[in-house]
Amino acid sequence: MIETSTPTMMDSTEPAHCTVCCCTLVNKILMVLFMVLLIVAILFGNLVTLAVVLGTKHFHTSQGYLKASLAVADLAVGIFVVPLSVYAEVYLMVTDSAPEWTSYNSQSVSFHPCNVIGPIFAGCTLVSISTIFLLTIERSIAVLRPLHKDAVITRKRTTILIILSWVGSFFLAVSPMIFSSEIALEYNSCSRMCNYALGTIGEFPSQGWNILLLFPAFDFTLLGGTVVINMISLSSIRQHSKRRKHLAEAESQSRSKPTFSDIKAAKTIGTLTVAFTASFTPIAVFVVGNVLGNVWCNFSFFAFWILATNSCWNVIIYSVWDQKFRLCAHKLLMPFQRRDTTKT
């Protein structure tokens, strides 16, 4: 999402960066193939998730609504963000010159494709973080206060929180463009993505950097809170598991205890948190490096695309941890499997 004002792909004064992914024709082909496969994985995985959540009554819960919101955010990355990078890289390979819009940033023209794609990527990333935070809160209440779960966690409240998370996330995503004339969007030759950048490099530190640092500050505040809440919930789960071994069967199934499905869901959200934290950490390291004046071109590419791959991990995590999700997904895909078998 955030990057310094490094030379763009067609900068007339400096040559484009030769990253490890793009120095040879073979590397370029492999990079485009990776992007295309990522699009397929994101679309397939998140469409299956939406179909299972929306098409199965069992998942018409607060947790299901939050998972659907997360799937929509990930789906937007596969529909808008990655395809623009594929277009730019294929155009460059076919014509041996990059699209014209990659040679300038958004401050140079009235409309730039990155004016749309950049905030979408940033906004969807922020939505993912805030949704995982809300999922963690929802599961912690189910584990720590099972008797109050139905009264506190309602579908109406969850819907309101989802709307607020989308509005707040996209407001934060466009705030650099609103509150600072120093910040522009560009298609960066290092990350091969639309990134925020300082349009004109002024004296350091600048107001632009203070605004851009809102992203990692917001992200790691929520991620830190999510990790702490997960640790408390998992600690409670371990204590409950120990107690179950020493209690009678009737008492262990008391309504004052979290259900097995609640425990399983809490572990799933914990896994989601770990996966997202691992994928976002390289971006945070890169931003800190930029603030200190470093330009890590190769690291930039890997950091941004590791974050993008997170958009297809959710359905894998659900499939591993949630047996009901696996069964519903299998039933959903059975007609296609039968069709393929008939053709063969």
From TrEMBL:
Keywords annotated in UniProt: Cell membrane, G-protein coupled receptor, Membrane, Receptor, Transducer, Transmembrane, Transmembrane helix
Membrane-spanning residues: 29-53, 65-88, 116-137, 158-179, 211-234, 269-293, 299-321
CDD domains: 7tm_classA_rhodopsin-like
Keyword Cell cycle belongs to the record: no
GO molecular function, one term: trace-amine receptor activity
InterPro entries with a match to the protein in the record: GPCR_Rhodpsn (IPR000276), GPCR_Rhodpsn_7TM (IPR017452), TAAR (IPR050569)
Top-level lineage group: Eukaryota
Transmembrane helix listed as a keyword: yes
One protein family per Pfam: 7tm_1
Subcellular location field: Cell membrane
One cellular-component annotation, GO: plasma membrane
Broad class of where this protein is predominantly found: membrane
Listed SUPFAM superfamilies: Family A G protein-coupled receptor-like
Domain G-protein coupled receptors family 1 profile: from-to ranges: 45-318
Family: Belongs to the G-protein coupled receptor 1 family.
Descriptive protein name: Trace amine-associated receptor 6
Lineage: Eukaryota, Metazoa, Chordata, Craniata, Vertebrata
